[in-house]
Amino acid sequence: GGLTDLWNNAKHTDVRIYVEDRLFACHRVVLASMSAYFDAMFTSDMKETREGVVYLKNMKAHVFDMILKYIYKGETSEMFPEFAVDVLYASSLLQIVSLQELCEKYFSDNLTLNSCLEIWRLSCTMHCINLKDNAWTFFMDNFVEVSHTDEFLEMSKDELLLAINDDNMNVENEELVCDAVLRWFEHDRKRVYYLLEIFHNLRLALMSYAYIDCITRRKAYIADNSECSELLEQMKHVSARAEIVYGQPHIFREHGKAACTLSNDIYVSGGTSSFGSAETRFVRFETKRNRWEYCLAMREPRCYHELVTVGHYIYTIGGFAPEDAVSNVERYDTIQKEWTRIGNLAIPVGGMSATALNGIIFVFGG
């Protein structure tokens, strides 16, 4: 009875809808009550409204038949699981919110290691926010297991970067993330073009010295990339040893470094190398992501100098390089990420203290 009887017997229909080679006789008010798409169409002065004929493109006839059974009867038995993707697409296109939510719940309840990435991509395309979040959360909760699937190996570079930068990833250690990344590279050797970019986004500082040394020696495509090899060689000196993980006083083994804070991040520069020479190194610890990253090196090596912040600038002042005191001052722009030499101290000095107040830098002692 009711709507079902009206639809089954095509009583009082006032709109004809053509999908592929099939004709569906429907009721405007019924469609408009369930679909924002049809509601907008039938309340406008469109040709379809005047003539009572609608041609639906990008829709399969058998799927639209299921949609109508849902609208008129509340029936969903034919949809799942075989036509779940088609129905989700159709409900998204026709803006049938209740059916879209039903499809999203079905997919969310049936996520697997092999399907979560495919479902995530699908939800991105169809702007299904809840399903997108659920699928991605499943991926992050099961990252190591998913990283062994074909779907993971087929991820794009941007998708991989999104994953390895997610703070909610559930892994025992960062070496497991790097293992997954290496499998991704080895699945398609053309991807070595992205090697440096992706390794810059790995949390190398939280990996062990032994692990970094191992992949540097055993992976030829890493050894053949001079920039990546240099990055890994540098990161051996800031890898996850006890003094870093547990916040011991000396983050690096070198002496004569300078440090400052800006926007809750820690910046460290210079110092002496194991050979006693001054360094140009400049690194940042991102507190939100709990990771070290290399920034653009200073123009000149120096040790026993000072770092001072004013606005979004970091000033490196004085110091020794390698034995003589330095007079020049460099400024790092944290937005443009570049160094500029801006002047000299009245007297070359090292081993001093410095601070800033109201935009003015004060230097003491040395």
TrEMBL record:
BTB domain boundaries: 13-75
The keyword Repeat appears for this protein: yes
Protein name: BTB domain-containing protein
Keyword Repeat set for record: yes
Gene3D superfamilies cross-referenced by the UniProt entry: 1.25.40.420, Kelch-type beta propeller, Potassium Channel Kv1.1, Chain A
InterPro entries tied to this protein: BACK, BTB/POZ_dom, Kelch-typ_b-propeller, Kelch_1, SKP1/BTB/POZ_sf
This protein's UniProt keywords: Kelch repeat, Repeat
Highest taxon of source: Eukaryota
PROSITE patterns linked to this entry: BTB
